[in-house]
Design a protein that fits this description.
2 helices, about 50 residues, mainly alpha, globular
């Protein structure tokens, strides 16, 4: 089950962020991925608090 969750997350990351744009540098990509992860974590926490 954990592997399926990771695969699903990786697919979401690829679709939502990586497949939609090109990055000029690795550092820019790292910042964008970090921001994406922070947003997802906040959304997940909010969902769990509401439940």
């Amino acid at each position: 089950m954990a592997n399926a969750a990771v695969e699903s997350f990786n697919s979401t990351l690829e679709w939502e962020l990586l497949s939609r744009r090109m990055f000029d540098a690795k550092e820019q990509a790292r910042r964008e991925v970090a921001a994406f992860l922070a947003t997802r974590a906040t959304e997940e926490a909010t969902l769990h608090e509401a439940a």
